[in-house]
């Protein structure tokens, strides 16, 4: 249906509490909205900063490119914090670009 969730929706998903399908939902957003799968999530450098601004990271580099300087993780292996932060950054980037 080509509906993109708002960043507020993802922030709600990321609130502490039991939500069994949180990872699969975030992976689905990446797949359907941004055509991203597999090893595409940048590792969080500062664990104290829950929602790192991924908009500053060059996400156009392929995962194999060692010159990008960004360590990427699989969507199935990274933490929920890393996956959620990345999804939030991508949604915010898309929201800003659409205005």
Description:
With 99 residues, the chain is mostly helical. Helix content is 38%, strand content 7%. It is built from 3 helices and 2 strands. The chain has helices at residues 7-13, 22-34, 80-97; strands spanning 39-42, 72-74. A two-stranded antiparallel sheet has the order 1-2. Helix 2 (22-34) runs parallel beside helix 3 (80-97). The longest helix has 18 residues, at 80-97. The radius of gyration is 13 Å and the shape is globular. 23% of the residues are buried.
Question: Keywords, please?
Answer:
mainly alpha; 2 strands
Topology of this protein?
Blueprint: H1 7-13, H2 22-34, E1 39-42, E2 72-74, H3 80-97
Antiparallel strand pairs: 1-2
Helix pairs in contact: 2-3
Please give the count of helices. 3
Radius of gyration: 13 Å
In what order do the strands lie side by side in the largest sheet?
Answer: 1-2
Structural class: mainly alpha
| Total count of strands | 2
Q: Tell me the fraction of residues in β-strands, as a range.
A: 5-15%
Q: Stretches where pLDDT falls below 50 for ≥5 residues?
A: 47-67
End-to-end separation in angstroms reads 21 Å
Helix content: 25-40%
What is the global morphology? Answer: globular
Q: What's the pLDDT, averaged over the residues?
A: 79
Largest sheet: 2 strands, antiparallel
Strand and helix order:
HHEEH
């Amino acid at each position: 249906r080509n509906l993109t969730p708002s960043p507020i929706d993802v922030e709600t998903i990321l609130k502490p509490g039991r939500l069994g399908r949180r990872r699969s939902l975030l992976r689905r957003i990446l797949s359907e909205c941004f055509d991203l799968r597999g090893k595409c999530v940048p590792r969080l450098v500062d664990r104290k900063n829950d929602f790192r601004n991924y908009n500053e990271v060059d996400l156009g580099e392929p995962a194999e490119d060692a010159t990008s300087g960004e360590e990427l993780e699989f969507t199935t292996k990274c933490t929920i914090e890393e996956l959620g932060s990345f999804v939030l950054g991508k949604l915010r980037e898309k929201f800003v670009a659409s205005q």
